[in-house]
Amino acid sequence: MTPGDQEETQPLLRPPGGSAPRSRRVFLAAFAAALGPLSFGFALGYSSPAIPSLRRAAPPALRLDDAAASWFGAIVTLGAAAGGVLGGWLVDRAGRKLSLLLCAGPFVAGFTVITAAQNVWMLLGGRLLTGLACGIASLVAPVYISEIAYPEVRGLLGSCVQLMVVIGILLAYLAGWVLKWRWLAVLGCVPPSFMLLLMCCMPETPRYLLTQHKRQEAVAAMQFLWGSEQGWEEPPVGAEHQGFHLAQLRRPGVYKPFIIGISLMAFQQLSGINAVMFYAETIFEEAKFKDSSLASVIVGIIQVLFTAVAALVMDRAGRRLLLALSGVVMVFSTSAFGTYFKLTQGGPSNSSHVDLLAAISMEPAGGGVGLAWLAVGSMCLFIAGGAQALRCLLAGLCLLHLQCPFHSGLCP
């Protein structure tokens, strides 16, 4: 590593002698920002319990057919794609704090539109708005948290982002077990509303304030977050703004890690992990489960557990090993689930055929019931592998060469 690399990796604000700040307000600020990823996860998981409820509705109540149900689950990704682009523009121009405040608006507006929906177009519009907020939150929240955290807790707080996403998904599954889709949408307004209130009391990140040449505000933010401003050194910030030219992509140190990172993320998305999240309950209904809500809750719990496990063991086991292991697990689990569908093809076509709890307490009464745990087990393995892979990919992007122009954006 060259001296220039070392300077680039040092925090913009740091205490002399490596002493750690003692203020706990940085954890409160990180929690406030992490409510964005929590809302993101809730929006992703919302469609899983909402779609079966909307498909079962009898006229004149609002009802989704198969095509509309597919769009209801998938359109959130279109909004997220636009939100990612918008978030990248906002985070540098409006600041980290204001970007998080702004993304709370589409979250609340989207779930409000869904709550008041009188037709399919209002449902799709609400989902599109929540997707837009998801894209902004998924980009801005990690940047805010990484820039307010001092080095001793940066890894811990950074790991909370992905964990809060899967907790949000699990919350949607659990609430969908007892709430109808309108009340579930009302619940979806709660996390972003709390984020809006808490973030109003939190400061902008010292790093961003220094890049805007607002040293006094940066010192005040630092004192609020870390407890003291005396004795802190301020290294030059000119290196923070390095121009990027497309010609730099010709350098092996830039294009090789960039292509590898983007390819891994693309293959991980194409594995179908998002489809399982969006349509988990529908998938289990198609698999002839009576307790499809319970099955999806079990999947959500497994995802939270393995996301936490991956965060704990990733530095010890290594990204490459965990990525390879997750790929093997996902191949095996999807093959097992496909086998389950093949073996139960001739069974009854209604979703009340398989009682998940009965499969635990008694001998199977039929082929489909006996194979109930093959379906649940294979989906749990798939989710476990997907959570493990996603956690590694997010951290693995930070292995990009420090001279890569995308490094500061991907790994603040």
Order of helices and strands: HHHHHHHHHHHHHHHHHHH
Strand content: under 5%
Helix content: over 70%
CA-atom Rg in angstroms: 23 Å
Low-pLDDT segments, ≥5 res: 1-12, 349-369, 395-412
- The count of DSSP E runs of length 2 or more, i.e. the number of strands, is 0
Mean pLDDT, rounded to whole units?
76
Structural category is: mainly alpha
Choose one word for the global shape. globular
Distance between the termini: 18 Å
Q: Helix segment count?
A: 19
As an assembly, this protein is single chain
Q: Please outline the major beta sheet.
A: none
Describe this entry's structure for a reader.
By secondary structure, the protein is mainly α. Helix content is 72%, strand content 0%. The chain has 19 helices and no strands. The longest helix is centred in the N-terminal third of the chain and has 32 residues. It is globular and about 70 Å long. The two termini are 18 Å apart. The relative contact order is 0.13.
Summed up:
With 412 residues, the protein is mainly α. Helix content is 72%, strand content 0%.
Descriptive labels:
mainly alpha; 412 residues; 19 helices; disordered C terminus; disordered N terminus
Topology summary:
Elements: H1 3-9, H2 25-56, H3 66-93, H4 96-115, H5 120-148, H6 151-176, H7 181-188, H8 190-199, H9 206-211, H10 215-226, H11 252-270, H12 273-278, H13 280-286, H14 292-317, H15 319-343, H16 358-361, H17 367-370, H18 372-396, H19 407-410
